[in-house]
Structures are given as C-alpha cells and as structure tokens.
Amino acid sequence: MLEILRIDFQAKKPELMSIGIGWFQAIIGLPEHIRHDKKVRTGLRCEVGDMEADDRNFAVFSVLKPSEYALHFAPEKVTRMNLLGDFSSQNSAVEKKLRFPGAVAVMINKVKYSATTSGLYSEEDAFVSVMYLSCSLQLSPRAICQNIREHGGQLPDCFFDPSHYLYHAVNSESIDGCIPRHLVA
C-alpha cells in the first residue's frame, strides 16, 4: 500500500513564493513577439494545498503585488472547481461570466491536492498552478497534467501545442519546475 504523502504547505510557503516570482518574471519577461500582452501585470495571488484536510493544510500568498482582480479570481477559481468536483477550473470556465481557468487538482493516494493562480493569462495561471503541484509533490509537470486529465480535468490547448512557449516546460518529465528558467531559447 502506498504511504499517504503529508506535506506542510505553510512550511513550504517561502519556497512556493520563490517559485511563483521566478515563473512570473520568466513569463512577463518574454518578448512581445512571443507573448502578446498589453496589460501591466503586477503579481500573482495563489493558494496551494490539501483543501480537503481537516487542519487547513494549505498556503495562501501573494507574489509581488497582484491586482484586485487577481485577489478576487484566485479563490473563486479553486472554490468553483472544488464545489463542482472538478480537477480543473477550466471545466467550468465561461469568460463572458468571468469564470476563468487557472486552478487545477490532482489525486495522489486518495488525497486531493490543488493549486490556483491568478494574475496572468488563464493558460499561464494554469501553468504556474501545475508547477506549484509539481514542486510540492515531487512529480514531473507531465505527470501532474496526466493526473489532472485522468480525473476529467481539462487543460489549456497550448499545453499540447509544441509551438507554444509553455509547451516544453509543462510537458517536462523532469522534476525541475521549482527552478524557473527561460521559456524560449
């Protein structure tokens, strides 16, 4: 029988914040011809943890200075995902109703771990959330994505497009998502 993985997400908070800063800077630092964004991005709002635990085993934090919208949408995404029993907030995303992707969950040894991010484009929020789970659970980003999909969670199309700047990092078999790097050569 597999051992239940017990992670203290509050203790991991500084590491998670560092990961978030690194990926945020790597993403917003991409040249305009690769990442088209006219908005000023100021930071991320994130939650990572075991949302089903009786002991509130999760970390809530900001990376840099997220907008008021990011502060609102991060908890909305994960709450909607959990209330609907989904493994991705993309399953219930409706942009016109301001319901966005960005929260994802995995089931490991009968424990549901989730992460939500807000402050970038929706597919980038989902990407950062995948990286948080990858680092926390010591599983490759590809394994995290496979677990999400095995449980009916939808992922952004760009995760499957080899020409997209997030593709290679999110499809990595390596457990190096904790080390943000340049997304393009």
How would you describe this structure to a colleague?
The chain has 185 residues and is an alpha+beta fold. It has a single domain, classed as Haem-degrading domain (Beta-Lactamase, 2-Layer Sandwich), CATH 3.30.450. It contains 5 helices and 4 strands, in the order H-E-E-H-E-E-H-H-H. A hairpin with a 2-residue loop joins strand 3 and strand 4. The longest helix has 20 residues.
Topology:
Elements: H1 9-28, E1 43-50, E2 57-64, H2 68-83, E3 103-108, E4 111-118, H3 122-137, H4 141-150, H5 167-170
Antiparallel strand pairs: 1-2, 1-4, 3-4
Could you provide a short overview of the structure?
Helix content is 36%, strand content 16%. The protein is of the alpha+beta class.
The percentage helix is 25-40%
Through-space gap between termini: 43 Å
- Write the CATH homologous superfamily: Haem-degrading domain
Let me know the largest β-sheet: 4 strands, antiparallel
Count all strands and give the number: 4
CATH class call: Alpha Beta
How are the strands ordered across the major sheet? 2-1-4-3
Percent of residues in beta strands? 15-25%
Overall shape: it is globular
Mean pLDDT: 87
